[in-house]
Each structure stands twice: as structure tokens, then as C-alpha cells.
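re: that chain from earlier
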Amino acid sequence: MLHIGIECESIEGPESWGVGRIVKKLLEEIARRPELEKEFKFFLYFKSKIPDYPWLANPIFAKKVILNHSQILKNLRIDSFSLYYYICLPIKLWFEKLDLMFFPNYMLSPLFRGESLVMLTEDIYYEIRRPDLRLRYKLAYKIFAEWWAARYATKIMATSETSKSEVSKLFKISPDRIVVNALGVDAPKIITRNQQLETSNYVLYVGQAFPRRHLRETMLAFEYLVEHTTERLNLVEAQPLSSLKLIAVGKDKYNPPIIKKLAEETNNRLGHSAIIYKEYVPEEELTALYANAKCVVYISSKEAFGLPPLEALSYGVPAVVSDEPINHEIYGGNVFMVRQPITPETIAEAIKDGLTNEIRRQKIKESAERILEKYTWQKHTDRFLQIIRSQKLQS
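^ sequence. v structure.
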């Protein structure tokens, strides 16, 4: 039987963004497979608490909390994540008899000893070089991702072929050390189209608002679109453009934060609540927002994968994305792409095309099943298990 460790701090809170969403979906899928109990035991390591997910009760999981006094540490102004991730967790793992430890959070502590699988993306490389990134994050990513994980992890997991190529080049990692495991999306949930939402006529942004995802420029583009387009858009049920809204969901990762203030200023200039900004919405509301959107806008300059456009496609909703290699890999031509350079004007042009080009919208909807069959959490989990099995054979 293989004993596999998984670092799980990212799923302790109620919000499931980024790494947390990936870990959550992986564990949910493992819990659905009783046949794995004969082959695996998964040891899940949490920083300060075990979340209340019913599937965590599955006997295939052994759950362990590393820091039981996080409130005391908080009162003492000690960074509990750093203490947990870089010191306490790797020391704890010295005494665990694991065949492999999976670190999905891009970083590896020099104190860790043993076989490791670390998820790493090119996003981290560019984050390190962002001038407005806080020093403590810059140092953490530099030391524990770029210097240590890239050099000393047994295997690196990339989330796409495009990302593998970028990670190999940027971090100077031999391609032989990198395995590819594409992410997945859920099967679409049944949604009542008339489910009550704040509006029925909107474009949608979902995701943590890092500067590279250009939410600021998207908001300016939306204002430009409303101010400079007078015709009625057939794809929004012949409603006037002035009734169209932009709903943006995700934490503001600009430094300093700018999104809430920009939304307020834009609404004041337009004279009505054209932009609705929320840091987080429950899963049920997010599902309804995806299903009822006219299009999803996700303009990221650097992305190892990018789930929101794919999640939107599962509901037949077209996406507006940047003209980057990763989007060609996943979608081919079945998205609306923002031409370079990315500006509010080029984003506005792509959004307008995404709302009005009926022929392309229909073509994108027809391509959905073919694209989505490649990207499921079942297949992601299958590949993860195969990576583990293969690594054990090599060690």
C-alpha cells in the first residue's frame, strides 16, 4: 500500500480559489473511489483546522493538524502559515513514513526530506518580479519556489503543455522532471434560467484579481464600451447597452487594492450601478452567474491554465480571453481573443464581438463537448494517481 501525503492548508477556509479548488476537487474525486482503499492511504496535513466536508470522513484519508494553537500565534503576531509550511510541517514529515508528499502550493521547504511532487507554474516566476509585490511574498516565492522547489523537488507538476514548456525554460528545469496534469471542470449543474439574480444582462469576471489578469483594464474597457457604443445588441435580448452590467467576483490582489474604488468611480461617471464587485459569492450563486452570463471575460497575460473560461464553457457561455499560447492549446479558435497589446480599447472590441457575433458564439457552443471531454476532474485524478504509481516504480 502506498502512503501519500497531501498538503491541505488551502482548503481550510470557506473560499475555494486557485490551489484550494484544485485540492478540493482532487480529494472529492478520490473519496468517490472505494477501490483505491486497497492501494492507497492518503495523509492530509492541515495548518490549524480540518474543514467540515463530508467526504473527508472517508477512511482512505488520515487527517492531521500541525498547529493547534494558531490563535495564540496570531495574538503573538507570529505568521502561522510560515511557521507551519516552512518549519513545523517538514519537521513533522521527518517522522511520517510516506512514499511521496504532494505540495500543491508551489513551494518546498529545505527542511523537507523525502520524495516530493510540487505543483509549479510560470505565474510564480512573474509574480516574483512584480514591482508591487510585497517583500515577504517575493522572498517566500524566490526562496521556496524558484530556488528550492525548482531545483530539489523529485517531480514538478505542470497543468498544461504550454505551462510545462514555460516552467522548464524560466526555472531551468529539465523537461524530464516535469509531468503534465491538466485541470478539470465539473459537469454543469441544472440551473433554472430565471433564478433570481441582481441582473439578467451582464458579462462576468471570476478569479482573484491579480494585475496580470487585467481586471482594472477590463473595467475601463466596459466603461469605454458603454460610452462609445450606441446600437442595441441582439445577443442581450435587444436590450439597450446602457442596461448591460459587469459583475466581477474575486479578491483584489492589487497592491494597494484598487478594484472597489474603481468600480465606485466608474459607476459615478456612468450615472448608475454598471459594475457590481464582490470579493466572494457562494458556490450556488457562482454557478448561477456562470449559467446566465452573456459572456465571461478573463484577460490574463500569464496563466498556467485558467479555469473560469472553461467553467463558463460548460454552460455554453463564450469567453473573452487574451491571445496567449495556453488559450490556443485549450480552446483552439473557440474563444474570443483580445489582440495585443492589451488595452481597454482592444478588450472592449473583443467583448463587443463576444456579445454580437452570433455565428462565432454558436460555433463555440457547438465545440464545448469536444473541448470539455479533455478536462474533467476524473481525468485529472486518474493522471495524478498514475504519476504517483510511476514515481514509486522509479524510486
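The chain has a mean pLDDT of 90.
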